[in-house]
Amino acid sequence: MIKVTYVAPDGTATTLEAEPGSSVMQTAVANDLDGIVGECGGAMMCATCHCYVDPAWQDRTGARSSDEEEMLEGAATEVTEASRLSCQIRLDPALDGLVVHLPEEQH
Ligand code: FES
């Protein structure tokens, strides 16, 4: 199992176990985690799965695609260099221990 930690804006950290091949968004939604909505189901059509990858993990999660970049323009909160659509981060054992930070809001 791969562990992913989601840190809420108030600092509350929730660690979830993810299936290999699932996304950071799917793992959050499957566990009813507040802070990730994932309205479009991962089709890169909504930006309600916005998250900020912890600086220690940014090299390993890779760069966002230009389509992802475009969709992030519609995100409800500030987009920074750490911003990703969490539906576009696929989990594999190399990402075990990943930490992402959740934005204040998704709508
Ligand atoms: S779930 Fe809609 S863009 Fe990620």
From TrEMBL:
Q: Where is the 2Fe-2S ferredoxin-type domain?
A: 2-106
GO CC annotations, alphabetized: cytosol
What's the protein here called? Ferredoxin, 2Fe-2S
Q: Which UniProt keywords apply?
A: 2Fe-2S, Iron, Iron-sulfur, Metal-binding
PROSITE patterns assigned to the protein according to its UniProt record, in alphabetical order: 2FE2S_FER_2, ADX
What family does the database annotate? Answer: Belongs to the adrenodoxin/putidaredoxin family.
Question: What does the entry give for GO biological process?
Answer: P450-containing electron transport chain
Q: Which InterPro entries match?
A: 2Fe-2S_ferredoxin-like_sf, 2Fe-2S_ferredoxin-type, Adrenodoxin-like, Adrenodoxin_Fe-S_BS, Beta-grasp_dom_sf
Name its species: Salipiger marinus
Q: What is an example of a Pfam family matching this protein?
A: Fer2
Essential cofactor(s)? [2Fe-2S] cluster
Decide whether keyword Metal-binding is in the record.
yes
Q: Which GO MF terms are attached to this record? A: 2 iron, 2 sulfur cluster binding; electron transfer activity; metal ion binding
The answer on whether this UniProt entry bears the keyword Iron-sulfur reads yes
